[in-house]
Amino acid sequence: MYAYDEIDRTLVNERVSEFRDQVKRRLSGELTEDEFKLLRLQNGVYLQLHAYMFRVAIPYGTLASNQLRALAHVARKYDRGYGHFTTRQNIQFNWIKLAELPDALADLAEVGIHAMQTSGNNMRNVTSDQWAGVAPGEIEDPRIWSELIRQHTTLHPEFSFLPRKFKIAITASDHDRAAIKIHDIGLRLIKNEKGETGFEVLVGGGLGRTPFIAKTIKHFVHGRDILSYIEAILRVYNQYGRRDNIYKARIKILVHELGIEKFSREVEEEWQHIRNSSLQIDDEVIEDIRSRFTYPAYEKLPHMPDELRQAAADPDFEAWRRNSVAPHKIQGYSIVTISLKPTGKPPGDATAEQMDALADLADKYSFGEIRVGHEQNLALPHVAKRDLPALWKALDKLGLATPNVNLITDIIACPGLDYCSLANARSIPIAQELTRRFANHELANLIGRLHINISGCINACGHHHVGHIGILGVEKNGEEVYQITIGGRADESAALGNLIGPGVKFDEVADVVEDIVEAYLALRERPEELFIDTVKRLGVEPFKERVYATR
Amino acid sequence: MPLVNGGKIVDDSFVKLAVDTPLPEGGDILVPAERFLGDAEAFLARAGKVGVIWPNNRDIDELVPYLGRLAAVALVFPTFRDGRAYSQARLLRERFNYRGEVRATGQVLRDQFVFMLRAGFDAFDVKKQADAEAFMQTAKRYSVFYQPTGDGRITALHRRMQLRHSEGVGT
């Protein structure tokens, strides 16, 4: 956990009082809605279909139990008793009242949580691997660097009015759980031949209406230079990024229009001016940030405790364990993913009661720590294996033990037309229907790892381009129509999915997905060949033939 | 439109010229970039201070040969959402060591004062009277800054190092 010091706390409190003043000026009419809009966006406040929506940052996906309780408190006191975890390590509240927002922010500030720059054309919440610090084989904890960059990007005096939003993600594992290749800047933590920490820097990834996979701009930037290098990229983007067309304003378009070689030359030139400035980071500064991350005092525990051996006889426990429990870097411990995808419910939602109860379980079983991943699930990062059976029983009682992590019903979806004013089509009801169709755990297990992503409009908040099966809702002649792609992925082998055929109507989507899955089961070479690998081997055609033969 | 300079509302000694306004005999003038570059030496040879109104989509490098003789550079915010002038201001101050007035013009509103001060602006054509009057109070809103800029304010990282070292003395 990162502990805020007095300096961090002061800044967040100053921000809250500034926003309180801005809300007051808006309510008195001193600020026009046009002027206020950007100010509220910079504090995570959107105006949606029914009410204001409030997006709170969970930097690099790390939460302490008291912070999760504060989120539960906000859900209960200022909203309708639940919150929605998003694909970028944020939580959203959908029914907040403008006049109460400053109080909600002040309550969150008490536990070191803020909503700065969770929307608007600025540098957004810095995201990372939700298993950071506990994943086996990780090079080093990427949250130290995430926090450094979080601080540097917060209220940046030069880059708070960019052409468009700007997202940075960091990973330090071979397997990329942070989806860095679909970010404006993706950082892959690596070591050079001298064993020094640095980053492969990728730039220009993003989804939306013109999706791009990020390209490598520099193979190694030393850790001490990472802030100046990021600053150089942003300075080029701030000056030359397009501002004439909102749909062409992301850095991915600038990189595409200039070409990565020319773009990287511009960045290099700028960087040479500023790399030996006060942006250079001393080891001491890194150590100071590192020292404010605390790590649990792990016990020496057996690899296979008796409790786990006995529980293995229970098939329900085993079904959950196989999908939800992952290896931890310390022997005797596990990382437990908490599915927020129960059958028939909106993906990513948690009630205030669930959040409170989960905070208690984190205190009891996970050294008071909770993680939030981009798949819209939570995790307990340090669970002793001997506690797994007891934890499972407790989670099951809370409706948080659905054994579907990474399976077909572990769906990523945006809020869609049920909440969002940008949406053209519903997302949540599609997700709900799919979780019912594939509710049979045996069937889901037989299918194996398969990610479905659903977006209710071209803005792609549900990351449909990188879903193994991607579903995009659009509007055509006043009707919802869904375009379906296959073969996308968001990990280290990130790729955009390909369209499988003509769009289909709302009530046909689940049938088409069933047909795609049936085609896969027939086409796969062996049970271990994952859906994504079968698509890679065969391409779209054989799927298209089977799915559209009778349509 | 009130001008804030040195933290106070002051009279603006500069007259803003349009592209085709006749050149006044004396007095301080702010000249549009295009017009200035067309006849820079003539403007600079004149009695009275000269400043340039520089658009936010033109490379500030072009102005470098004249900076030593310019009393002011006015950078433009066509809307407050367009942040290009922040980069230009930092380049003027931090790369080209420009010490004259750097003025924010256009849609200059209260809630951007802190960012502008940090980027190196020291004069502000403020859009609304109430915002101009609130300048000093608004400028003090923040006491913590995470990024180093040319304004010399100490960053959070460095303050932590100072605290660390001063704590270390007694132990």
UniProtKB/TrEMBL annotation, chain A:
GO molecular function, one term: oxidoreductase activity
Keyword annotations of the record: 4Fe-4S, Heme, Iron, Iron-sulfur, Metal-binding, Oxidoreductase
InterPro entries for the chain: NIR_SIR_4Fe-4S, NiRdtase/SiRdtase_haem-b_fer, Nit/Sulf_reduc_fer-like_dom_sf, NO2/SO3_Rdtase_4Fe4S_dom, NO2/SO3_Rdtase_4Fe4S_sf
Domain Nitrite/sulphite reductase 4Fe-4S: 119-273, 408-547
Any Pfam family hit: NIR_SIR_ferr
Domain Nitrite/Sulfite reductase ferredoxin-like positions: 52-111, 346-397
Record-linked Gene3D superfamilies: Sulfite Reductase Hemoprotein, domain 1, Sulfite Reductase Hemoprotein,Domain 2
SUPFAM superfamilies reported in the protein's UniProt record: Nitrite and sulphite reductase 4Fe-4S domain-like, Nitrite/Sulfite reductase N-terminal domain-like
Protein name: Sulfite reductase
Organism: Bradyrhizobium neotropicale
TrEMBL record, chain B:
Stored Pfam families: DUF934
Organism: Bradyrhizobium neotropicale
InterPro entries: UCP030820
Protein name, UniProt field: Oxidoreductase
